Every structure is written in C-alpha cells, then in structure tokens.
C-alpha cells in the first residue's frame, strides 16, 4: 500500500494558509507554490540512498556521502505543476525534468492528455511527479499510468493540497507510489473542487480567469 505522508511542519502550514486567502496576489501565490514544493521535497527525499565517495578536503583525504545512482527526475503535470518543479530545482539543480500535459474536462472531470516528454533515461531515475492539487485523483493517476507504460517504476507523488476522495482513488490505483501531501482537506464539492482548498491552482498561478 502507498505510504501517505501529510506534512505537519509549521512553515508548510503557514504558507499554505496564505495561499488559501482569496486576495493573495498572483505573484505571492506563485512564489509560495515554489517554496512549499521545496519544503515538501525536503521531506520526500529523506530516504534517498547514499553512497560513500573519497574526496580530498584542503587538509586531508576523507569519505563523504553522495546521492547514489542516476539521481532524480522531476515530472510536473502541466500547467500548475510547473511552478512546483521550479521550486524543487532550487534544491536539486541537477535533476532532469520531464513534462506531462493533462487538463481536466470541466464537465466529466476526466483527465485529457495533450503532452508527454520525458528524459530518455527516466527508467533509471527516482521520479517525483508534482501537481499542486489532488482532487478526484484522475489527473495524477493518468500521469502515473503514462510513466508506467514507458517502463518507469520508482515513482513518488508530491502535492500541496489533497482531498480524501482523491487520496483513496490514487492509493488504490497506484499502491506502489508514495504520496507527500502539504495539507489534507475536507472533501470535494459537486464540481470536483477541493474544500476549503485554494480554488483553481493553474488560474491562481498564471492569473487566468
Ligand atoms: C488541476 C490540477 C490538477 C487537476 C486535479 O489542473 O493542477 O492537475 O486539476 O484534479 P483531479 O485530481 O480531479 O484530476 P487543471 O485540470 O485545472 O489544468 P491546468 O493545470 O492546466 O489549469
Ligand atoms: N484543480 C484545482 O486547481 N483546484 C481544485 O480544487 C480541484 C482541481
């Protein structure tokens, strides 16, 4: 079963609180998406494997740790995931980046795929799929289906806000994928929006609508 981690760090809770306020400006909202993504990523990378390497300090030879293997790949779900990826790249500047384009059909709430471009060696990397919102779960499930179809298996999913309905559907669909959630909200409304939520993440990041 997926490991579900809900963040309890005061900085994350404080920043998500500001994001929920409807008068928070586009610029501040965008900055907060990056900052909170960075903080969640700090927790999500806690168990990455390390390897010993020999180095020389100015004084002597010694052994230090480095992240083992082929390192990481961040996969934002377009559009809103892009700003989470930017934040995470501040922390892990050498990560590769893949993109999955999906939008929710507003009537059926089903995800519609329009783009998928991944680094050629993604199958060897630890993959962090990022999207601010896990609402019905349809978009995140579809994005991870796309990755798995391409032979990718080491996948983690990071979001800022999730609805219980989406978490349930996601963990049933992808029990092998761990989830890191900034805040777990109450429920979905009849239009598939998270309550209390923060509204439409893409519109708030880009100032559309
Ligand atoms: C939002 C959000 C997720 C999706 C979540 O994207 O960023 O991708 O909805 O909803 P779900 O869990 O019910 O699938 P949206 O479809 O609005 O596209 P956008 O990022 O292009 O605005
Ligand atoms: N997508 C969003 O951007 N917000 C929601 O509350 C649900 C889906």
Q: Which range does the strand content fall in?
A: 25-35%
Mean pLDDT: 96
Q: Kindly state the number of beta strands.
A: 13
Q: DSSP helix count? A: 6
The residue fraction in helices comes out at 25-40%
Any idea of the CATH topology? Rossmann fold
CATH class: Alpha Beta
Instruction: Name the hetero compounds present.
Output: 1-O-pyrophosphono-5-O-phosphono-alpha-D-ribofuranose, uracil
Indicate the CATH architecture.
3-Layer(aba) Sandwich
User: What distance separates the N and C termini?
Assistant: 38 Å
Order of helices and strands: EHHEEEHEEEEEHEHEEEH
| Backbone structural class | alpha/beta
Q: How many distinct domains? A: 1
Over the alpha carbons, how many angstroms does the gyration radius reach? 18 Å
Global morphology: globular
Q: Low-confidence segments, ≥5 residues, pLDDT <50?
A: none
Main sheet makeup: 9 strands, mixed
